Amino acid sequence: MKKIALTMIFAGATLMAADGAALFAKCAGCHGQDGKTKALGKSAQIAGMPAADIVKKLQGYKAGTLNQYGMGGVMHGQAASLSDDDMKALADYISKLGK
């Protein structure tokens, strides 16, 4: 019985883990499916950026303290609902794009 309970807990946690690919769907409209599009013609491409840099930028946008390329307002709206786990999963996914 304990094994079944532990298996169910682990499976539930796995299903609830943030999915970087699914989270990226709302980013792809501006950054492209491959992350190589300059958002609104202003930003740098994000594909292949180091995950730690992406997390730091997302945290800045969420906090409203980053306005890189004049995109602070747009990105604040996009990052506002992201949890720390979401940011890590998204950053991991983006860092592997184009590789």
Describe the structure.
The protein is an all-alpha fold. The chain has helices spanning 2-16, 20-24, 28-31, 51-63, 72-79, 84-96. The chain has a single domain (19-96), classed as Cytochrome Bc1 Complex, Chain D, domain 2 (Orthogonal Bundle), CATH 1.10.760.10. It is built from six helices and no strands. Helix 4 crosses helix 5 (72-79). It is globular. The N and C termini lie far apart (44 Å). Residues 5-16 have low confidence and may be disordered.
Count of runs of 4 or more consecutive helical residues = 6
CATH class: Mainly Alpha
The tally of strands reads: 0
Helix content: 55-70%
Shape annotation:
globular
What is the CA-based Rg, rounded? 16 Å
Measured by DSSP, the beta-strand proportion falls in under 5%
SSE order, one letter for each helix or strand: HHHHHH
Largest sheet: none
CATH superfamily: Cytochrome c-like domain
- Find the CATH topology: Cytochrome Bc1 Complex, Chain D, domain 2
Which architecture per CATH? Answer: Orthogonal Bundle
Count of individual domains:
1
Summarize this entry quickly.
With 99 residues, the protein is mainly alpha-helical.
